[in-house]
Amino acid sequence: MQQIHVSAIDMGLSRVLPVAEKLGLLQSAKEDAYVFTVAGTNGKGSTTAIISEICQQAGYKTALYQSPHLIDFNERVRIDGQPVGDQRLIDAFYQVEQARLACELTLSFFEMTTLAAMLIFAQAKCDVWVLEVGLGGRLDVVNIINPNLAVITNIGIDHVEWLGDTREKIGYEKAGILRDGIPLVYGEPDMPDSVRQRIEALNCPYYQLQQDYDFTLVDSEMDTDTATESADQSQWQFSSAHVTLQLPKPKLSLLNTANAVAALLASELKINSAHIKQGLQQVKLAGRFDQRQLFERHWLFDVAHNERGVNFLLQQFKPLWQAHLAKYPQAKLHLVFSMLADKDIEQVVELLVQSGLLISQWYIGEIDHPRAAGLQQLSEVLQQHQQSVSSYASVAKAGMAAITETMPDDLILVSGSFHTIGEVLQQLNVSA
Q1: Of 4, 131, 145, 269, which sits most exposed with the smallest number of CB within 10 A?
Q2: Are residues 53 and 122 in the same domain?
Q3: Tens digit of pLDDT for each residue in 55-106?
Q4: CATH number for the domain harbouring residue 168
Q5: How far apart are CA 186 and CA 41, in angstroms?
Q6: What b-and-e string marks burial along 366-392, b requiring 16 or more CB atoms within 10 Å of the CB?
Q7: Collapsing DSSP states into helix, strand and coil, what is residue 413?
Q8: Is 279 exposed, middle or buried (0-12, 13-18, 19+ CB in 10 A)?
Q9: What is the DSSP string of 69-118?
Q10: What is the helix (H) or strand (E) element at residue 213, kind and residue range?
């Protein structure tokens, strides 16, 4: 399937729209579903997962589309929280392929996948569609569907070859998901002018973090952005001009959680505080500040792969590491690490090295992906920062090596890419 079009990423909607129309997707989504479209540089996965879980708790048959997957392709396409089965995916891909051939057009891998997911959602007659934008917004295939409500989690510098090299340019692309008069939830205090101009041009009501809603911890002195450890029954507070809610802490970032709650309250869906509380107690998402006990070791998996993602990870991780050291004074920090070659490896490594964390050992290996950074590239960057490095043929083998080289009290952080997390989890024979 990945060979149908020469480019894995081919921005633009001109080829995909006729196929979507042939499949009847545009009319189906318009008539039968309430659609959330979520764009942003970071936090899309957590935000969409939370929206989806709360909608399920409210009794809506809920479709969730996310990318990329960590282990199984089916993770991308979920109905009521469950990945769809292989045969359902095969049938949908067959129908998309027949429509593509009838239109005499080529489609990229991501376009085929997105259309197949939407076809499954339409055929299942889902009440709510929660769609994560893959890249940008304006020209992403998800944008063929008109949303009822849009979310932009944040705008940072990433995918500059596709979206531009400034927040204004990237903001313009992400604001392309807006439509006339639909609400927007904007999940950070600093809004680029390009987004604001789009809001004004389309007369969209909007709700912005720290302006129209905010959040705070009730029983902790930790910074609100860092509150993700949720084994306890700690509470946090969501507040806006219309409502104040005391809510249980979820296993995901409170920042992304607050944005998701704001989106649900701004929607036309019948969502109450009980649904929100139940959803937050249930929601989870692999690879996002994902703490596990595996092979008698403490692990933390996080997909951070750019400046904003790493800074956010560090804000969350530092209090966790201090708490870990208080419990295990002899513990050491080990990092299983790999990235894609087109990411800013130097910047990510520099942020990790200069974070103040003492990383005892780095375990590096190549990701099984055409865009993977090579061992030499990874090694050279780390050696420039005088880090202690062990190299392996694959990042999966690096993850296994970390087990043998650590002590039970140590903590193993796995980060750098979705692919890094997925391959290590697969090697450890655990599910996402």
Answers
A1: 4
A2: yes
A3: 999 999 999 999 999 999 999 999 999 999 999 999 999 999 999 999 999 9
A4: 3.40.1190.10
A5: 12
A6: bbebeebbebebbbebbeeeebebebb
A7: strand
A8: buried
A9: -SS-GGGGEEETTEEPPHHHHHHHHHHHHHHHHHHT----HHHHHHHHHH
A10: strand 213-217
Question: 399 with 322, same domain?
Answer: yes
**Residue 64 pairs with which residues in a beta bridge?**
78, 130
Give the C-alpha separation, 400 to 420, whole Å.
Answer: 13
CA angle 137, 151, 23 (to 5 degrees): 55
Predicted TM-score of the model (pTM): 0.88
Q: What is the mean pLDDT of residues 253-266?
A: 97
Does 155 lie in the same domain as 94?
yes
Give the whole-angstrom CA distance, residue 354 versus residue 390: 20
pLDDT at 279: 98
DSSP label at residue 364: E
Domain residues for 61?
A: 16-282
Confidence at residue 319, expressed as pLDDT on a 0 to 100 scale:
92
Q: Is residue 374 part of a domain?
A: yes
How many angstroms separate the CA atoms of 221 and 203, rounded?
39
Does residue 147 share a domain with residue 184?
A: yes
Of 238, 259, 282, the one marking the end of a domain is 282
Residues 174-188 have pLDDT tens digits of 999 999 999 999 999
- For residue 9, being part of any structural domain is answered with no
Query: Is the separation of the CB atoms in 193 and 158 below 8 Å?
Result: no
What are 351-367's pLDDT values in tens digits? 999 999 999 999 999 99
Do 37 and 159 share a domain, yes or no?
yes
- pLDDT tens digits for 316-332? 899 999 999 999 999 99
Q: 1: which residues sit within 8 A by CB, 6+ positions away?
A: 93, 109, 112
Q: Provide the mean pLDDT of the chain.
A: 92
Residue 222 has pLDDT above 60, yes or no: no
Where is the domain boundary, 282, 301, 325? 282
